[in-house]
Amino acid sequence: MKLKKVMKESSLSRLWTHNEKHDCGAMTAFRDAADCGEGEKYTPADNKKRNISLSAKLKSKGYGITKLQGTYPEGGKSKKENSYFVVDLEDSGNLKKDLMKFGAEFEQDSILFIPKGA
């Protein structure tokens, strides 16, 4: 039990250090349903595939990613979803633009962008 706590604190410290040095953000490709939640329901397998695609796109841009377990209010209640903490390791300056682009592509209501040092 104590080892898990240490690992979580270590991971949080690593993410904090990344944000001191680089632009960072967070997002997911999970969605309750297509058409911004109004269309056909996505299955858990659909959402897993969507997140794998998002992961590949983020990595192809040279970003570092760390898996997160998050929650987001959708359809009147909070839903658990697998998300990614994203780091612009190469300091390209394109992270915000790319997160917004991928957010639109994967029909997200929001993305999180954290400027370096914020």
Characteristics:
single chain; 41% helix; 4 strands; 118 residues; alpha+beta; disordered N terminus; 25% strand
Any overview of this molecule?
This protein is an alpha+beta fold and 118 residues long. The chain has helices spanning 2-21, 44-60, 95-105; strands at residues 24-27, 64-74, 77-87, 112-114. A four-stranded antiparallel β-sheet has the order 2-3-1-4.
Secondary-structure map:
Layout lengths: L1 H20 L2 E4 L16 H17 L3 E11 L2 E11 L7 H11 L6 E3 L4
Antiparallel strand pairs: 1-3, 1-4, 2-3
Count, helices:
3
Which range best describes the helical content: under 10%, 10-25%, 25-40%, 40-55%, 55-70% or over 70%? 40-55%
Q: Outline the low-pLDDT stretches.
A: 1-7
Please give the order of strands in the largest beta sheet.
2-3-1-4
- Which of globular, elongated, flat, extended, rod-shaped describes the shape? globular
Compute the number of strand runs.
Answer: 4
% residues in beta strands:
15-25%
Distance between the termini: 32 Å
SSE pattern, N- to C-terminal? HEHEEHE
Largest sheet: 4 strands, antiparallel
* Integer-rounded radius of gyration: 15 Å
Mean pLDDT: 87
Structural class from helices and strands?
alpha+beta
